[in-house]
Structure formats: structure tokens, C-alpha cells
């Protein structure tokens, strides 16, 4: 039974039961049509209404200014690693059409996802006039020199002269590292296009969209189920990518990766992930009806600070992996003294229905993910268990 379990998975992760009940109903019989929401034409007036409401509620929640467009895309967070590079380079090329124009892409690497994103940017720009500059590799600033455990201040980063964009990941899901309040916007060179991956902390605190060229996230944590990627793009970056390619020096853009094509077709250039859009729409409605992002932000602060307190007051039984100012409110990571104790911890938790607490396979340890779908009561169950386990 769902009620007997608290699912602390890092994503895909817990959604509110009422959202899933509505989704299940809509999958069978949407709005009394006798047909499910994923069985009708994506161009039908019924589905268009779903899609439009989803986008408009998302804009409300994220406070998206008129300067920016919302796109409903596929390919997940990793798809966006590629599409961001391709589209922003096309925009850069149109502004710098000279045949000898060169540029760099700056990556702020604070964990394994931004590291992967930088790797993809390198791969896509091989053999072009573009190079990738890792402006920060936070591992070099850690105590052991190899783990992602803090974000050093921006005056220690090395931006390049005039980058086509600066990229960061607001919350690193695997490493449990999050920017404290927000990215340090003041550190940026003037007029820099800033790109944010918010896959794992979207809708858990306010983010100033106007400071960004692109903000994107896979839906499957705070915003719905896998299959939908939410992309917010500044409108001047919706460009003719074929014209840009013809100027030379940058990669060609597949049509399905082309922001402008999606924007021009109201995110229906091809068949969109209809059920995933529907579930995100229901999730947005739920968040709006429960106080919006401000309320979820407060809840996230409370849930995570209570849990970190137990960790910090455990006389070393629970060892935090991340320095206090960079600790994630979404993914709380820590270790136990040895493998045996860790197993016992996971067993105890499991007996109480506290599930999916094992850390990512690349880093081990424990990871408790406290996304929007985890209530304060849910978090308290874990906290109580950890106190009594100690
Ligand atoms: N970025 C972040 C911060 C993530 O947490 C993830 C997935 N957990 C990704 C990117 C990759 O997303 P996807 O699996 O949707 O491609």
C-alpha cells in the first residue's frame, strides 16, 4: 500500500497521491470523453487545452517574464545537455558571422551532472571553432581533491573572455550539492548568456528567470514524470539554425532539437509526450493550490534543515559529505562508519517502509531525496528513525 511507504528516491520520485489518482482517471477516460488523454489527437481541442494550461501554470509558478518562451520538449535532462549547446551556438554564430569567429562555452562543474554536460559540450564541438572552458572543477577545491563536496566562491572561478554561454547545475542530484540561494549572478561578465539545469530543484525555490538565457529541467522529480523536459528560453535565442550552420564553424542542429521549431509550433512540432504533459499539468495545479513555490520553498528548508541537524548532532555516526553552505535541500547525502552499519541502517529503514535511501552507485553512502512530493510528516518519519537508530 502506498500509505505504508515513504519513497525517498532521487528521481523518478514520489508524486502526490491525489495527482496520480487524477492522472490514472484521465488516462482511462479524460473529461468524460470515453477516451484517455493519451489516446486522442495531440492537435485536438481537448489536448490543446491541457497543453496550454500546463504551460500557463508553469509560467505562473516560475514567474516567466514576457522575454522568455516555455517549450515542452523530450530527451530529459541529458537531451538538454546537447540542445542547449546546439541552439546557443547557432544564436552566437548569427551574431558573429565572420569566418574567423571563435568562442568558448564556460562550464561551472559542481557535480557529476554538470560534469557530464561539459563532456557532451566537448564532444559536440569537436572539429568546430568552439572550445569548452571548465571555469570551475569543484573537485580541485575539495579536501580530498577528488569529490564534489563544496562550491568555492566565484572569485576562484576562471571565466573565459567572452563566452557564448556560462552553464551551471543549480542542484547536483548525485552529490547533494546546491547553490546557496542562487547562482552568483554578479560574478558574470556583462551580457553573458547564463544556462541553468534545474532538473532536481525546479519548483522548490524561486529562481530569477530573467537572469537566464535558458533554464531547463526534466520533469521527473518535482514537476511530474519522465518523458517531458521543461525548457525556458529567452526569445532572441530562437533562431534559424540552418542559416547559422551555413555560416560555418558550428554543428548542424537536428530539427527535433531546434528550439525555434518547437516554439513556432507551440511545442507540437511532432507528437509531444502527452501523458507526461498531463501529469505535469496536474502537478503544477497541485502546487499552485497549496501555496505555490514560496510555500514549497519553506517546506524544503524545514525538511532539509531538520535532517541535517540530526546528521550534525550524531557524534559522527552520520557523516555529511557536503560543506554546510553548499548542502542540497533536495538530496541529503551522508555516510555511516562502515558498510555493515550502512546495511543495518538501510534494513531498519526498510522495515519501517522508508525506501530508496541508498546513495548513487557512483558515490555510495546514503541519499535521502526530499522533493516536493515528500511531506514534512514523511521527512519526520526518517528523522525519527535516524534518531532511534543512533
Ligand atoms: N541533470 C540533473 C541535475 C539530473 O538530476 C539528471 C537526472 N537525474 C539529469 C540532468 C539527467 O536527466 P535525464 O535522466 O532526464 O536525462
TrEMBL record:
Keywords: Amino-acid biosynthesis, Aminotransferase, Pyridoxal phosphate, Serine biosynthesis, Transferase. GO terms for cellular component: cytoplasm. Pathway: Amino-acid biosynthesis; L-serine biosynthesis; L-serine from 3-phospho-D-glycerate: step 2/3. The keyword GTP-binding does not apply. Residues 5-382 form the Aminotransferase class V domain. One of its GO terms (biological process) is L-serine biosynthetic process. It catalyses: 4-(phosphooxy)-L-threonine + 2-oxoglutarate = (R)-3-hydroxy-2-oxo-4-phosphooxybutanoate + L-glutamate; O-phospho-L-serine + 2-oxoglutarate = 3-phosphooxypyruvate + L-glutamate. It is an enzyme of class 2 (transferase). The keyword Hydrolase does not apply. SUPFAM superfamilies: PLP-dependent transferases. Pfam families: Aminotran_5 (PF00266). Its cofactor is pyridoxal 5'-phosphate. It comes from the Eukaryota. GO terms for molecular function: O-phospho-L-serine:2-oxoglutarate aminotransferase activity; pyridoxal phosphate binding. InterPro entries: Aminotrans_V_dom (IPR000192), Pser_aminoTfrase (IPR022278), PyrdxlP-dep_Trfase (IPR015424), PyrdxlP-dep_Trfase_major (IPR015421), PyrdxlP-dep_Trfase_small (IPR015422). Its EC number is 2.6.1.52. Belongs to the class-V pyridoxal-phosphate-dependent aminotransferase family. SerC subfamily. PANTHER family: PHOSPHOSERINE AMINOTRANSFERASE (PTHR43247:SF1). This is phosphoserine transaminase. It comes from Wallemia ichthyophaga (strain EXF-994 / CBS 113033).
